[in-house]
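Fig. S4 source data, part A: sequence.
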Amino acid sequence: SLFICHTKESDQNEIHYLRLLKEARVCGIIITPTSDDDDSVNNEYLNLLSSMNIPIVLVDRDVKCSRYDGVFIDNERGAFEATNLLLENGHTRIALISGPLNTTPGRDRMQGYRSAFARMQRPVDEELIFYGDFSIASGETLTREILQRHPDVTAIFPVNNMMTLGCLAALRKAGYSVPEDMAVVGFDRVDALDMLGIPLSVVGRPTREMGQQAMKLLSKQLAG
């Protein structure tokens, strides 16, 4: 049997589900942790994982002070390449819709954005960095804010696929065409856009392969 739990980026939801899975006596867990910045939550989290005494595999995000196996990508490199692509195409006013900085992808993708500007020896305008929460709603809200506060922006980089969808929705409602009126580069494929035949430059992430590798790691641990 397979249990799927959606934590909605909540530490407390995550701990709640882990306790339920412990009571259910599951034989192994594949998990994408929510955050790693709150030491009190992190300690409770680590103690709970340790007490389960079962194989655990992390995907996409790490856990501080842990030694669990995991499957990860180079988030910083991906964000660097996305931002560098925009810079090389003449864009200098590039707004970033960042993820939460209490997550590894949020921090690393922010650093990739900054590194691309540093490589071009250009200063980062801190006013063009907006902080989202990896949701469609935050992508849409922050894009509207970008258009209102910074009409000179020519490119937007939302750092995950959900915020990219929100960004595109806001641009469409404001009458902007992509890429004619606004350049957009996303992080992760947006399956809905692929199905509709809408082209969008994105940092590709092998999500399916990451899941397969995580299951291989878990299966290997379950086999001893």
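Fig. S4 source data, part B ends here. The chain has eight helices and eight strands.
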